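Lab notebook, bench 4. The sequencing result for the construct came back, and we need a structural model before the next group meeting so we can plan mutations. Quick request posted to the team channel:

Model the 3D structure of this chain.
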Amino acid sequence: SSSPGPRYRWAILGMALLAVFGALGLARFSYASILPSMQAALGLSNAQAGSLATADLTGYLLMSVLGGVLAARMGPRRVISAGLLLCTLGLVLTGVSWSYAPALLGRLLAGFGTAMANIPAQAMIGQWFSRRRRGLATGTVGSGASIGLIVAGPLVPWMVASFGDSGWRMSWYVLAAGTFILAVAGFAILRDRPGYTPEGLESTG
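Done. Here's the predicted structure in token form:
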């Protein structure tokens, strides 16, 4: 991919924030709000419902190390976009699930994708900003998770309530669509490295 100049760092910052928003806010944090309706519709026991969340976390932990390795070898742009696409697949599979097993697989895939997108998105910022701005930039990207909670908190219960018995499925589909859009945007906007030395920005901000 091309290596743009200093002004492009703000586009990188915004897209990295949105990647974290999609990976955590849409693909992960929405689960608790959808679970009650989903559990009732699929006839899941409390143990099964809890294991879906465990599958998500397991996928995240397993991919946490590999996500960084993949980003170092393939570039964060491809890995972040692929992670968001994997989140999309996991969300769709969870939405179409007719029983416990496919829902479990869907949450596992979402966990894999969340780590692939979230970790490189937060790590790549250090390559684009000078030491003076690096802490602020990293904190800004990390706030994508909190923004996800703020957005998903009221949005998901509204969707669940608005579409009747299929509300929980529709919620997963809408979240998947949002995550897919972010995956495409990430591939179009993100770049693997800047065409400048970030420390040269110390005097200019």
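Helices lie at 9-26, 31-42, 46-74, 76-96, 100-123, 131-162, 167-189.
Will bring this to the meeting.
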